[in-house]
């Protein structure tokens, strides 16, 4: 598929197709003859209505713009129907005494997703004044350059089979087409036994045993939740550890907890072959034939494993990846090669590569809306402090740079790796940690360089400029209970490039787990904290 940054004819899927039924035609009238076109002109067209797309459509309408919103699937996107919300409901239920899959499955269907019906979300969107079509959008001309230009032409094919519609975006097209599950081909593994996270979310009953391929956040969260509902879970991880994007000590604590809960964790393991029984034609809620019996998996380690289902949790990839600048403007080439913004073309969410998180999409939506409504690029999206949380027990959370990333960044800028300083504390050593018998760690990464501590003279000595001393926090990681909540303060500090000296002055509440932030700060020397703060409080 061609990149959406190409001004020529470019198909842009509004979202992944699914057998789950969606409502009928949207509010835009169309004739039943597919050869007839309906033409409309609006200020902006938003393609893809995940959380960020829905948000920016509403923001633009409130700002006085006319907006067409298009999505092929469900308004609200993956998060409320198949991702963040249902999975956290599962984890919540799994922690309760007498945890019941039937209870949480019913709650997901009735309370969270309305049986995967987005009528409420569509009504909410229409209530803002936006126009909406359930369908597929394709950019066929443009690009939009401003209110006086011809704009960007978009063809919309409604889901109900009615006439194609030709729309013109006078000012902007905002892309938000999301991501989809990466499917790893396994010879002999049929759809009859293969699940994705969507099948877990929509399941009314659970298999007795499940092999999960992948040890990232999705595999770990679902694996722990399902194991607590009585499923025999095996995690097959190609690499050397779970959660490869996080600190090794975090992965070690998660694995220790998993094994204590009966989860079979196998690292350095892949499926090399499959032997499956006959497949019946019994149809599940997703129309996938169910296996007549378990499958026998041959593993690269030489072992064999029997499971009723195989869950692919091998990550997600953007459907239509694009390069964007810090104002989320689509570039006509790679940013590193001097790509230039395509007039009137913006992208947010997973497709930008800034982090496959709802909060990333929402933050980018705010950046684009501010830019379009004010006519000024005054609020860039900053990637250096995007937080992430894996909601296992224990939770794993991080923001900014790890120790290795910080050292590599310093060296790439011609600095010395000694500019990076790390402090690590045991959460269990804090008063609250001791009371609650906590196992976990908190890690801070700080940097002292010419930007924060003055320029080095010819002898390598650093002078202090403008009275500022010490370093700034560039990264943090937490593993343990409520790690995501502890990360809140650290996200603010990394985002604002807060001097460590200021963190040293804060009276952290006692007894809390987040007080460990202050304990970690005291491990830094005067070069990082600053001589004044290291000596005591400043009056």
Automatic annotation (TrEMBL):
<feature type="compositionally biased region" description="Pro residues">
    <location>
        <begin position="14"/>
        <end position="28"/>
    </location>
</feature>
<dbReference type="Pfam" id="PF02852">
    <property type="entry name" value="Pyr_redox_dim"/>
</dbReference>
<keyword id="KW-0285">Flavoprotein</keyword>
<feature type="compositionally biased region" description="Low complexity">
    <location>
        <begin position="1"/>
        <end position="13"/>
    </location>
</feature>
<feature type="domain" description="Pyridine nucleotide-disulphide oxidoreductase dimerisation">
    <location>
        <begin position="471"/>
        <end position="520"/>
    </location>
</feature>
<dbReference type="InterPro" id="IPR023753">
    <property type="entry name" value="FAD/NAD-binding_dom"/>
</dbReference>
<feature type="region of interest" description="Disordered">
    <location>
        <begin position="1"/>
        <end position="35"/>
    </location>
</feature>
<feature type="domain" description="FAD/NAD(P)-binding">
    <location>
        <begin position="43"/>
        <end position="365"/>
    </location>
</feature>
<keyword id="KW-0274">FAD</keyword>
<dbReference type="InterPro" id="IPR004099">
    <property type="entry name" value="Pyr_nucl-diS_OxRdtase_dimer"/>
</dbReference>
<feature type="domain" description="Pyridine nucleotide-disulphide oxidoreductase dimerisation">
    <location>
        <begin position="386"/>
        <end position="446"/>
    </location>
</feature>
<protein>
    <submittedName>
        <fullName>NAD(P)/FAD-dependent oxidoreductase</fullName>
    </submittedName>
</protein>
<dbReference type="InterPro" id="IPR016156">
    <property type="entry name" value="FAD/NAD-linked_Rdtase_dimer_sf"/>
</dbReference>
<dbReference type="InterPro" id="IPR036188">
    <property type="entry name" value="FAD/NAD-bd_sf"/>
</dbReference>
<dbReference type="Pfam" id="PF07992">
    <property type="entry name" value="Pyr_redox_2"/>
</dbReference>
């Amino acid at each position: 598929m061609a990149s959406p940054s190409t001004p020529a004819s470019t198909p842009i899927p509004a979202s992944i197709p699914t057998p789950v039924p969606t409502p009928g035609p949207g509010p835009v009238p169309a004739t039943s003859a597919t050869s007839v076109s309906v033409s409309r002109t609006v200020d902006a067209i938003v393609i893809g209505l995940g959380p960020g797309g829905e948000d920016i459509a509403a923001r633009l309408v409130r700002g006085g713009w006319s907006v067409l919103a298009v999505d092929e699937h469900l308004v609200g996107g993956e998060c409320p129907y198949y991702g963040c919300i249902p999975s956290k409901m599962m984890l919540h239920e799994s922690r309760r005494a007498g945890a019941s899959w039937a209870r949480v499955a019913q709650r997901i269907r009735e309370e969270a997703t309305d049986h995967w019906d987005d009528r409420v979300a569509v009504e909410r969107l229409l209530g803002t004044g936006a126009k909406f079509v359930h369908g597929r959008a394709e950019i066929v001309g443009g690009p939009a350059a401003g209110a006086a230009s011809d704009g960007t032409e978009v063809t919309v094919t409604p889901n109900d089979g009615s006439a194609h519609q030709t729309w013109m975006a006078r000012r902007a097209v905002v892309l938000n087409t999301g991501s989809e599950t990466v499917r790893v081909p396994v010879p002999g593994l049929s759809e009859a036994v293969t699940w994705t996270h969507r099948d877990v979310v929509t399941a009314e009953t659970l298999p007795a045993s499940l092999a999960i391929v992948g040890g990232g956040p999705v595999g770990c969260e679902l694996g722990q939740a399902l194991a607590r509902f009585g499923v025999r879970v095996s995690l097959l991880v190609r690499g050397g550890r779970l959660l490869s994007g996080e600190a090794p000590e975090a992965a070690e604590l998660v694995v220790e907890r998993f094994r204590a809960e009966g989860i079979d964790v196998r690292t350095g393991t892949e499926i090399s072959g499959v032997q499956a029984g006959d497949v019946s034609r019994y149809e599940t809620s997703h129309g996938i034939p169910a296996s007549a019996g378990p499958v026998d998996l041959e593993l690269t380690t030489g072992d064999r494993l029997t499971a009723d289902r195989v869950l692919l949790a091998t990550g997600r990839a953007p459907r239509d990846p694009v390069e964007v600048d810090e104002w989320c403007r689509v570039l006509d080439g790679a940013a590193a090669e001097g790509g230039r913004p395509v007039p009137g073309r913006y992208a947010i969410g997973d497709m930008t590569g800034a982090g496959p998180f709802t909060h990333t999409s929402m933050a980018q939506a705010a950046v684009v809306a501010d830019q379009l409504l004010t006519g000024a690029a005054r609020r860039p999206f900053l990637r250096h402090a995007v937080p992430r949380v894996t909601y296992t027990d224990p939770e794993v959370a991080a923001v900014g740079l790890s120790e290795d990333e910080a050292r590599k960044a310093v060296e790439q800028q011609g600095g010395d790796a000694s500019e990076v300083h790390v402090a690590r504390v045991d959460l269990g050593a804090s008063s609250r940690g001791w009371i609650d018998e906590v196992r976990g760690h908190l890690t801070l990464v700080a940097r002292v360089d010419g930007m924060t501590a003055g320029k080095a003279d010819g002898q390598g000595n650093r002078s202090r400029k403008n009275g500022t001393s010490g370093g700034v926090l560039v990264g943090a990681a937490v593993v343990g209970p409520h790690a995501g909540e502890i990360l809140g303060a650290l996200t603010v500090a990394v985002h604002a490039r807060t001097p460590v000296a200021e963190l040293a002055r804060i009276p952290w509440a006692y007894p809390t787990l987040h007080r460990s932030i202050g304990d970690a700060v005291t491990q830094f020397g005067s070069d990082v904290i600053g001589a004044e703060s290291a000596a005591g409080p400043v009056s």
